Amino acid sequence: MKHDSKERYGSVSKTFHWLMAALIGWQLLKFGDRIAEGEHWVGETLVPWHVSIGTLLLVMIVLRLVWVMTQRHQRPAQDPATARLVKAGHGLLFAGMLLMPLTGIMVMLGGGYGLTAFGLEIFAKGDEIAWAATIGSLHSPLAWALTVLIIGHIGMALTHHFVHRDDTLKRML
Fold first, then answer.
1. Which cofactor does it need (predicted)?
2. Tens of pLDDT along 53-74?
């Protein structure tokens, strides 16, 4: 089933969800740079892909938002008592997923580094841009906030599965 239904998420939604979850998990390994100044296997093998994966995630979140908008009337029903909280939580997750790569791009442009993803130059190196650097300075605090939201999201999914014993988690599996 490609499209979402009132009972389950479709294959496109599931693919976006789990692929982005894996890539965001990879991105969060960047926190490992704070350990031993990145001088370990994570810092040396996975972190160099941080900008490329972030750029890919920006494309994916835009495509996912378009997909969500086309499916909004077909998505699984929410418990009316918590529907607003669920929408707010998902809205914050989507905002974080969108703001992370945008502020990351501002870090690169603000520092005059340019932007290269997967070996393709998107923006050439140039002069530092103060306003872009200022916006880019939000990248790290947003990473922490998004991490908290992700932990909350996982926690709620597990609570639904193991405590409430409903089918919320199964909809995305």
1. heme b
2. 999 999 999 999 999 999 988 8
